[in-house]
Write a structure and sequence with these properties.
The chain is an alpha+beta fold. It is built from five helices and six strands, in the order αβββαααβαββ. The protein has a six-stranded antiparallel beta sheet with strand order 1-5-6-3-2-4, with helices on both faces. Helix 2 packs antiparallel against helix 3 and helix 2 packs across helix 4. The protein is globular.
Length: about 160
């Protein structure tokens, strides 16, 4: 019997992906778990396997959503700072951070692990469904990192396995 398993990306893999993708120096360090709340809005990406079972989520807090979205699209840092001040991502930053989270699906796809793809992303400012919130708050198999995007700023991310 073949049993598929979910793969939790290692810290180095996360850092390397962001470095290559954003073409920036990326520094990461451990941090307490990221908890999306109305006072701490996050972009939360939901990943599914080939049967559409949710396997994992990745949450970026507002600053990392803005900085990653700006860095991949070569938007000046001032554009990210404006989004953080206004507590909402404009359409360009939403599309750009979606692309980052879409490519981040590759972090889960290792030999012997369940194939995973991005199913949906809930952007900062949009209501977060209860089941997605619960998955983002799941303790256990997760990585929680503070991320410094060179030339932009710092934010936090969480990678959470739920299956």
């Amino acid at each position: 019997m073949y049993v598929q398993t979910s793969y939790l990306p290692q810290v180095k893999e996360i850092r390397d992906l962001l470095t290559d993708l954003l073409d920036r120096d990326i520094q990461v360090s451990p941090t307490p778990p990221l908890a999306p709340t109305p006072n701490n809005p996050c972009t939360v990406a939901v990943y599914v396997d080939d049967t559409l079972q949710v396997t994992s989520v990745i949450a970026f807090d507002l600053p990392l959503s803005a900085y990653a979205g700006a860095a991949i699209g070569l938007v000046p840092a001032a554009g990210a700072e404006t989004a953080i001040e206004e507590r909402v991502l404009n359409q360009t930053l939403q599309e750009n951070v979606y692309e980052v989270l879409n490519i981040a699906a590759s972090l889960f796809n290792h030999d012997g692990a369940t194939h995973v793809r991005l199913y949906d992303a809930h952007h900062v400012g949009a209501p977060l469904p209860g089941d997605v919130m619960a998955r983002a708050l799941t303790l256990g198999r997760r990585e929680d990192l503070a991320v410094e995007v060179g030339g932009y700023g710092a934010g936090r991310l969480s990678v959470v396995l739920v299956a």
